[in-house]
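In practice, a research group might receive sequence data for several interacting partners and want a quick structural hypothesis before committing to experiments. The following worked case mirrors that situation: the sequences arrive first, and a predicted assembly follows.
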Amino acid sequence: MKGILTVCRKELADHFSSTRFILLFTLILMVSLVIAFIVGSTLQEELKNEAKPTFVFLMLFTSSGKLFSLVQFISIFGPLIGIVLGFDSISRERSARTLSKLLSQPIYRDAVINGKFLAGFVTIGIMLMAIVLLISGLGLRLIGVVPGPDEIWRLALYLVISIFYISFWLGISILFSVVFRSMATSALAAIAFWIFFSFFVSLGANLAADALYPVDQTVAASNPELLVQREQTRKILSLFSPMTLYSEATTTILNPLMKTTQPLILMGPMERLSISRFQNPLPLFESVYIVLPLIISLIAITSICFALSYIFFMRQEIRST
Amino acid sequence: MSEEMVIETQELTKVYGQQVAVNHLNLIIQEGEIFGFLGPNGAGKTTTLLMLLGLSEPTSGKARVGGFDPTREPLKVKRVVGYLPENVGFYDDLNAAQNLKYVARLNGIPDEQSAAKIDELLRQVELQAETRKKVGDFSRGMRQRLGIAEVLIKDPRVVFLDEPTLGLDPDGASQMLELIQSLSRDKKITVFFSSHLLDQVQKISHRVGIMIKGQMVAAGRIQDLAKEKLGVGKEQYTLEEIYMKYFKEGRA
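A structural hypothesis for the assembly, expressed as tokens:
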């Protein structure tokens, strides 16, 4: 345990003093603040049309304003934070020839990789927390609405899910840094993985669903079952993307009016009823209940990813070169 | 010199795929001894060191270092053994003292105790003037000396030095040799080092071992090896002559 903390402490110090971290943090902070500012100033206009606006504070994070919302921003570019923090964690020790020295100290071998993962996890936590708090503060000034306890809980939950989401990408990049010897290869592999799973999977899901269940006007009228099947296939396939998992989970958590993650065509009778009849927000517990499978999958893939890098690292031969 | 065995291997073997890197190695090293480990590149010297440290698992055979089995109790071995890898690396954005502090922490030495020790070690390796300089700006000789300081911070009983004088200028090399000798003489530390520079090995080693293609072809005091290979009465032997003789036989 002591070894893990020592490694973690050093890695944290490295992260916070490294130029690339400062650059990345500034960039993300800047974008977030700009988004929050735009949203904050357009929100007043939008709310004029609503008779009784609810959960205005959370809209700061979910409303897309003129560009995109903060939640969307994190779901698309959050992975980059994870990749930047992890892509060279092991390969740099190897190329700087510090790995064999590090491993010849009296610490367990897993302390190295655990400490590195923990440090990345903490860094991500601090970074996201700082962004969310800053935007909350800015929002308070701009729109002057104080968040209720329910909103604060939702925001906290959003933070936890986001930390796990970005940690998944940290895990992926650490895995590649263990497997590949060169830092450039591991960075490229992680980015390729990110592009594939974030953008191509949802695209591919559409294509695959269309190919498997070709639906045109005539068939749709005679056989509506086919439409449902196509939608189901598309939905299942698109859940292979961590980005889909994350954005569905977080939009439900942050929007109490959202009652299901299913598209209209796949909704059951009760879901349809609740949407058409009741306009009340869901209690937090119910929102969590809806997306619990998504959250658990997200935590599971993060753990699997970390476990894989752990196994690879523990089994790797330390060669003389 | 006490007669206690610090390093002992029995039929130690390492196979990488088809290639036998270390072939049934039997070796005994006494406490406080300086053992020079010779052999051409790729003979299996570093692999042997890695196995003795528990960083690499032997395919078969047994080893004991400082009374512990490196495969079963690697942490206990690593607590008493300091290892200086060939071309040792450092965290280049940290300064000399910070690098040492990290290693001290990894060894569980609290910061209050390590500070004085780091000062003392840096003085010992004559780096006290460069304490605050980033290691990235260090010359080769300075890095090598910092490596020695790093090895010594855990108060080892045994040190493994892989090519400690490689790439040093003559002055730096002789400083390094003196440092190694003082470890054995003043602190009773067992030194197990590999090198290609035979005159240096001859100067400081109590015993030498010659490894060729994974096999230890000779081990013993230099004068004994000379007697065996070059014949009696040859006073002006050099280690180089002995080594070349073994090397040619080994290749044949």
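Before designing any experiment, note the following. The radius of gyration of chain B is 18 Å. Residues 170-187 of chain B form the longest helix (18 residues).
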